[in-house]
């Protein structure tokens, strides 16, 4: 069971790029990677607008709250680099031979996915609330589509990251079940002897040897019998 757990095959096996890209987990990572680019790209490029044509100072489009724009950009960047990191981990996951290292990688994936789900939920609520309080103007109307895109893809990111957390939880449960199976079937020490046949299994032990029947009572000169003379 060493090297064949937590949703991957034995360590050292060949990686098929086509099968890897078709995995639901890989598709989800690429999807949320694109969503993160849309969110922080929209905010950086089009969500800083002028209050009016006479004011050159740029303000955040979300009710002129700089914290809203900064938070959306920060979460998007964290998600962007997090997707790249775990994409590489998934790519080399099958090369990890230690079950403990695989377990740590899956737990890290589970914790990070759950954490990002929470961050995106806060981002969606924060941006949507500030957008409702925004007073429309000429500058705001120019970046309105970008603001709505940031809010919309923040919501979609929640769903995708929750799905990634569920996939990581399934991999963790699968790996735990296989580890328990391996512990029950085989000894934990590499030098432990292989168990012998249980009693009553129908296989006789070869440790003791029994003499053939009737050899102990066989007498070469039985009493009362004389060899006839010719």
TrEMBL record:
Annotated transmembrane regions: 26-44, 71-93, 105-129, 149-169
Pfam families: MARVEL
Residue ranges, compositional bias (Polar residues): 203-220
Protein localization: Membrane
Key words, A-Z: Membrane, Transmembrane, Transmembrane helix
Gene (name only): LOC101878950
One annotated Gene Ontology cellular component of this protein: neuromuscular junction
Name of this chain's protein: Synaptogyrin
Lipid bilayer topology: Multi-pass membrane protein
């Amino acid at each position: 069971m060493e090297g064949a757990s937590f949703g991957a095959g034995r360590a050292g096996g060949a990686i098929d790029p086509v099968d890897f890209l078709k995995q639901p987990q890989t598709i989800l990572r690429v999807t949320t990677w694109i969503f993160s680019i849309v969110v922080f790209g929209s905010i950086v490029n089009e969500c800083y607008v002028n209050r009016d044509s006479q004011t050159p100072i740029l303000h955040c489009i979300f009710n002129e709250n700089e914290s809203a724009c900064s938070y959306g950009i920060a979460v998007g960047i964290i998600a962007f680099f997090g997707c790249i990191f775990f994409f590489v981990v998934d790519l080399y996951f099958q090369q990890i031979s230690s079950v403990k290292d695989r377990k740590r990688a899956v737990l890290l994936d589970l914790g990070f996915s759950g954490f990002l789900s929470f961050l995106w939920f806060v981002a969606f609520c924060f941006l949507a609330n500030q957008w409702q309080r925004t007073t429309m103007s000429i500058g705001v109307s120019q970046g309105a589509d970008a603001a709505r895109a940031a809010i919309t893809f923040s919501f979609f990111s929640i769903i995708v990251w929750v799905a990634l957390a569920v996939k990581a939880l399934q991999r963790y449960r699968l790996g735990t079940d296989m580890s328990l199976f391996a512990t029950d079937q085989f000894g934990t020490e590499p030098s432990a002897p292989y168990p012998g046949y249980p009693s009553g299994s129908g296989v006789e032990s070869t440790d003791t040897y029994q003499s053939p029947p009737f050899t102990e009572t066989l007498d070469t000169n039985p009493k009362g019998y004389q060899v006839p003379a010719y």
